[in-house]
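KilA-N domain-containing protein
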Amino acid sequence: MAAKLEVLEQQIATYAREGIEYICITDMARYKNPERTDIIIGNWLRNRNTIEFLGIWEQLNNPNFNPIEFDGFKALAGLNSFTLTAKQWIEKTGAVGLISKAGRYGGTYAQKDIAFEFASWISVEFKLYLIKEFQRLKEQEFQQLGWDIRRNLAKMNYLIHTDAIKEHLIPDSLTPAQINHIYASEADLLNMALFGVTAAQWRLQNVEEKGNMRDHANVHQLVCLANLEAMNAHFIQKGIPSQQRLVKLNQLAIQQMTILSRQQTALASHLPADPD
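Predicted C-alpha cells:
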C-alpha cells in the first residue's frame, strides 16, 4: 500500500504507476460527503470545464489519447442529460490521467495535477492543504532516498572491504567457520573505530531494537563508515596489522565526524563552515 496523505483530518491514498503519481479523489470526495463519493466525482466529470481540462492534459501527456471521443464528450458536457463516470472516460478515450481501481483499496485515482484541480472544485482551502501535504510527502521521500543512497554506498564499499580481507588475510587452509570469524572481526574493527562497541555489545545494549547498529546510524556516520571501509581495505593491502589499523581508523573517524558535525552546525546556523 502506497503512502497516505492527511488533509484536514481526511486520509488520502496515493499510488504510482509507470512514472505517474496518482492521488485518490474518492478519498478526497469523502471530505465533502462520505456517503456520496461516486455522485460527487460524477458531477465533477460532467462539468464542461473538467472535460476540457482532462482532454488538454491527455493531449499533452498521452500519445494514445483518442481526441475524437474527447470531442464527443465535450460536445455533450453541460447538458442536463449528460453523465460520465471515470471508467467510461478511461475506456472510451484511452486516458491515463484517471485510474479506476477495484478491491479493498479501490476508488478513482487522478494524476496529481488533475487531483489538485478536483480539490479546487471541492474547496480552495482543501486544495491548498493538499498541495502542502503532498510537498511534505515528497520532501520526506527525498530525505529517505538520500539515506538509502548512503546506506547502499556503505554496503558497496563493504564488498571492496571484504574482497581485500579474502585476498590478504585469509589463508587457503582456513575453514568456512574461521573465514566467517575473520570477516566478523574486521567488521567489528570498523564498528569499534566508529561506534566504540562491537556488534555483539550493541545488541546486548539494544535488545529491543530491530536490525544492527548500522541500520540505526545517522547520515554522517554512514558517510564516515563508507570512507573507513575503503581506507581499511587500503591498510589491509599494505599489510598493516589489525591493532595499528584500529588506531588509524579511530583517528580518521574522530577527524571526519568532527568535520561533518562542524559542517552541520554551520548549515544549521546559515553560516559558512570553517575550512580549518
